[in-house]
Design goal:
The chain is built from 8 helices and no strands. It has helices spanning about 10-35, 45-50, 55-80, 85-120, 125-135, 140-160, 170-190, 200-225.
Length: about 230
């Protein structure tokens, strides 16, 4: 008998929620207590303070990205055929989440594999590569990719709003708030990329994590409450 994985919104939402908890509060707490990396000064300073524990948020990030993709796919699977407009929105949401995943997974491969190898290479001559790809440097290519990627995620999730238009007003409102916050963060990064490494940047990062965890939890509760009705959404 072929294996069949019955993915639904509850599973996708729980995977996403766990991913945010691990890559956000858990990872930040571990780094602050056991392997802090000082505010970016130079590639030399980064190498002097590098610890493999600093890759932990990005390894958790692989799990998070998988959960986000599965959550959007679950919406596409469960709500398909409700209306032409909703189908179009869900198709665009799925295309957007795949673009997001491609960008962010490239980023996390750099942080978990490429940058550590450069940091531990004693032959020298790697400073420019570290500066260009390490997310400790707010002016790096990786931070640019990160901010654009999560703005795309904001759009992908906002496109799910139609799934809840008839039954839940809170989730669409939070999805709109997330989109606004994501776009504002991107614009701020274009103007002044160094804000992401400030105390305010850390606070806003935790607020955004809390917002996304709330959205995932509300999606889970909505799916659990309405799963028996073929008309929900």
């Amino acid at each position: 008998m072929p294996f069949k994985f019955n993915l639904n919104i509850r599973i996708g939402a729980l995977l996403t929620l766990i991913g945010f908890i691990l890559s956000g509060p858990v990872a930040v707490a571990i780094l602050l207590n056991f392997a802090p990396q000082p505010t970016w000064q130079s590639a030399e300073a980064f190498k002097a303070n590098f610890n493999w524990l600093q890759t932990l948020p990005y390894f958790f990030g692989f799990y998070l990205v998988s959960g986000l993709v599965l959550l959007v796919f679950a919406h596409k699977n469960e709500y398909k055929g409700r209306s032409h407009d909703l189908d179009n929105a869900l198709n665009l949401a799925f295309a957007s989440i795949l673009l997001f995943a491609g960008l962010i997974l490239f980023n996390y491969i750099c942080q978990t594999t490429f940058v550590p190898h450069m940091a531990l290479d004693t032959s020298g001559g790697n400073d420019d590569l570290i500066s260009g790809f390490s997310m400790s440097n707010p002016r790096s290519l990786s931070w640019s990719i990160e901010m654009w990627g999560y703005a795309i995620l904001g759009k992908a999730f906002w496109l799910l709003s139609g799934c809840y238009a008839k039954t839940n007003k809170v989730i669409p409102a939070l999805l709109s708030a997330n989109l606004i916050l994501s776009i504002a963060s991107l614009i701020w990064s274009i103007i002044n990329p160094e804000w992401v490494e400030t105390t305010l940047g850390l606070i806003l990062f935790m607020i955004w994590n809390a917002l996304m965890m709330l959205i995932a939890w509300l999606m889970y509760m909505h799916a659990r409450t309405n799963q028996a009705s073929p008309e929900f959404g």
